[in-house]
Specification:
Structural class: mainly alpha
Number of domains: 1
CATH class: Mainly Alpha
CATH architecture: Up-down Bundle
Helix content: 55-70%
Number of strands: 0
Largest sheet: none
Order of helices and strands: HHHHHHHH
Number of helices: 8
CATH topology: Four Helix Bundle (Hemerythrin (Met), subunit A)
Strand content: under 5%
Distance between the termini: 37 Å
Oligomer: single chain
Length: 221
């Protein structure tokens, strides 16, 4: 468990360092609150979930991962680093756009917290919440149709897509929204590819699709 928590902390701590180094200063209250909550979430959720098999699944790369998903993960990681780096540069050094006002930062921080809660609930109810797209036959992979999965088929991606638009504003950069838009496109692409994979390869998923019509956004897609 301790090993898994340490591995979980690599992402938020790295992004925190990238942002503040890019900004060239650390006297920013809202970004510190954001990174504190971001990091605490990575610590608390594995403890609450307490699923050793799932954590092994998330941190041990399997041989049957889809090739296109390996490319996705690399592209997603690259764009995420770009987002935090550029937001820091914009806010602290370059001043390419208007800086987010405190009221807007707080408002979007609250909305971001809401997206994180949706993501946490999704993680909690789904015993197969892997970092990579694969049919987990070794873990008796089944369709999950409870919690947020009653509303959309990929609630984890939904929360990530909406949350990613909050990040640059929280961090003080409007121009960072351009990179958020690129990340959202990548998430939409992965959603489509994963959904097709599940339809073709996971028993019972076609029937689930008849009950839950939308992939990401209720009433839209």
């Amino acid at each position: 468990m301790i090993r898994n928590i340490i591995l979980s902390l690599i992402a938020p701590s790295s992004l925190c360092i990238i942002y503040f180094l890019s900004a060239g200063k650390i006297d920013m209250i809202i970004p510190w609150i954001f990174f504190t909550l971001y990091t605490l979430n990575f610590i608390v959720m594995p403890i609450i979930k307490n699923d050793k098999e799932l954590m092994k699944e998330r941190f041990n790369k399997k041989k049957d991962i889809k090739e296109w998903d390996i490319i996705f993960n690399r592209l997603f990681s690259f764009l995420l680093i770009c987002l935090y780096c550029f937001s820091g540069l914009d806010y602290g050094r370059l001043n390419l756009s208007f800086k987010s006002e405190l009221f807007l930062q707080i408002t979007f921080l609250i909305f971001w917290i809401f997206t994180i809660l949706i993501s946490d609930i999704t993680f909690y109810v789904n015993a197969y919440y892997s970092r990579f797209v694969r049919i987990q036959k070794d873990r008796d992979h089944k369709v999950i149709d409870k919690g947020p999965y009653k509303i959309v088929r990929h609630p984890g991606y939904s929360s990530s897509m909406f949350g990613i638009f909050c990040v640059p504003i929280i961090l003080g950069s409007y121009s960072g929204l351009f990179i958020s838009f690129l990340i959202a496109l990548v998430i939409i692409y992965r959603t489509q590819k994963e959904d097709s994979t599940l339809i073709n390869e996971l028993h019972g998923y076609k029937e689930y699709c008849k009950k839950v019509k939308f992939k990401l956004i209720p009433g839209v897609w």
